[in-house]
Specification:
Blueprint (H helix, E strand, L loop, with lengths): L1 H16 L7 H4 L9 H10 L1 E7 L4 H18 L6 E7 L4 H6 L7 E5 L6 E4 L5 H11 L6 H9 L11 E3 L4 H5 L3 E7 L4 H16 L6 E7 L4 H6 L7 E6 L2 E5 L6 H16 L24 E2 L5 H4 L4 E7 L4 H16 L5 E7 L4 H6 L7 E6 L2 E5 L6 H18 L1
Length: 404
Amino acid sequence: MAAYILALLLLSTYTLLTRVHFACGDDDHGNIAPSYDSDAFTSSLKQQRHFVMFYAPWCGHCKNLAPTWDELAKMYNKVEGSPVIIAKVDCTVHTGLCADHDIVGFPTLKLFEVGGQSHKRYAGKRDLDSLKAFIQDHVHGVRLLDNIEADAKQPEVPEPKSSLVVLDDESFKGHVSKGSFFIKFYAPWCGHCQKLAPVWDDLADTFNHNNKVSIAKIDCTQSSVICKQYGIDGYPTLLWFKDGEKIEQYQGARTHEALKQYVSDRLQDGAREPHVEQEEPALEPGQAEHSVGAVKDLTDETFKSAISSGLHFVKFFAPWCGHCKRLAPTWDDLAKDFQSHPVSIDRVDCTLHKATCDDNQVRGYPTLKLFRNGEFLKDYRGSRTLEELHEFVKKNYDDSHDEL
C-alpha cells in the first residue's frame, strides 16, 4: 500500500511540474460529471448511488473516454429523481481515496450502491450504449433524459410482473428462495454468452407478465462465490431453480423457441397435481411382485427393494422431456407384452426421485437400464420402437431362464 501511494504521489508531482501541458485537463475530462475529493465522495455516496470514473489526466484511455462520460452524465445527472449520479475522481490529486478503493489502472469504473459499502466494477466496452446497458442492468428505475418527452406523449404501460433479474453473490439466495428461476451463469468475455445475450433478453421479455417464473442472469466474473457453489465450470451454464433448490441443467438448443418451450414445459409440469404414493394392497401368497400388464412406478423409498428380485427394465425420465413423452405409450405397451412373464417394466420420475437417479448415474432422459436381482446388468442404447425393446427384454429374459 505504501509503495502504491508513493507511486501516485510521484504521478501527482509530475502533473504539477508539467501543469502547463495539462492546463486544459478539466476541459479534456469535461465538467458535467462532478469531480469528487474524499469528503465529497463520502458524503455524496451516503445520499445516492454513483457510477464513478477513477482517472489520471495524463492517461490516454481516460481522455478518450472523457466525452462519452460527459454524455453519460448529461443523461443521468440532469434527470430529476435519477437513481444514479455519474461522477469522477482524479487519482493524481486524491491519491488516498484511490488507494482506499484499490485503483491500480486507469480508467477504473465502479458502480457504488448507496452508502458506498458495496460496488460493481465495470469491465465492458467503453462506448455509450454499453455503459447505458450496464446501468440499466444494475439500476432499477432508470429514466433517461432523452426518454422523458416520449414518455409524456405515450399512455402509461402497466409495469411488468417480472423482468430479467440481475443476481450477484449478495442477492442470489434471497431472490431464488421462493418460486421458479431460469438462470444464466455467464462471463462477459465468453463468445457463446455474447451470442446468447439478446436471445436471453428476448426470453425475459416473453415471460415479462408471468409471475410464475423469473428469467435471471449472474456474472461469474463478479460473483465467484455462487458460481463456485454450484460447480459452474463452463459458460454459459443454464440452470433451473425451484424454491431455492437447483433442479437441473438445461442442455437443449439455445434458440428463443427452444428456451421458451423448455420454460413452458417446466411451468406446466410444476402446475400438475403432486404425485401421491398410494398404499399398495398386501400381496397374496404366491402373487407376482409386480403389476400385471402395467408399468410400475418406483420411488427413492421403494427402488432397491422393488428390483431386488427378478428382471427389471427401468425407464428413468422427466415429465417435461419430449423424448420421454413420445416413449410413454410404447413403454406401456411393452409392459402389456410381458404381463405373463416374471419381468417388471418400471419407471422412475427423476424430478421427484433425484437420489435414485443420481445413484444410477442418470445423465439424460430417457435413460433405460436393465437390472437382475438388484444388480445393474446393462444400459439399453438401441432404437426405441416396441419391436426392438421387446426383443431386448426377451433375449435377456431367455438368457436368465436358461441359467436357471
